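#structure-requests
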Amino acid sequence: MASNDEELFFGADDEPVKDEVDNSSVEDAAASDKASAEGGETQSKETEPEVKAEAGNADDEDDDDEDASADSSEATNELEARYMNLYAEYDNYRRRTQKEKDNLYADAVACVTKEFLTLIDNLDRATEGAKKADEDSLDKVIQGMELVGRQAQDTLKKIGVEEIPAERGTKFDPNLHDAMMHVDDEELGEQEIAMVFAKGYKYKDRVIRHAQVQVAN
């Protein structure tokens, strides 16, 4: 009896013939797998240089970043040094100019005071003379005070200080005069000075004190 694993066929002479297994498809599949494997190895070998090239580019980028960072740090340090030098120069300039300003102010005060020392001396003498004066010497006291007043005006002129014009009938100027009160006066025109309460003074174009006046109409 024939085995179950083998299928028998009967030919013309009735002899059993074994079926031959067709292995062509298996061989074709094996050849295809081999070709695929070889192609994969070839592709892998071809891509390896690209990976290495990419790694090399990354190293170059890291080096560039380090160089840029070093350059930036050096530039920052240079700017810092320049700033500190500039600040030191400015501080020295500020101290020097402040000292010069203080010295200039002190010199101006000393100069003005020196001009008034003689005036103060004469004023003291006039005061002592007035204390000893009697009715007969009253005129001399008045003359002495007037002399001191004129000397004071001369001293002011020496240092460049001028009296602001503010006589009766002078036109009122708010830039030079300070109106203390108003009064009706038929003898004067509108906005004219009627009386002076305190003289005003100016240095060049700068008003030191406005003249205090009474304004008419």
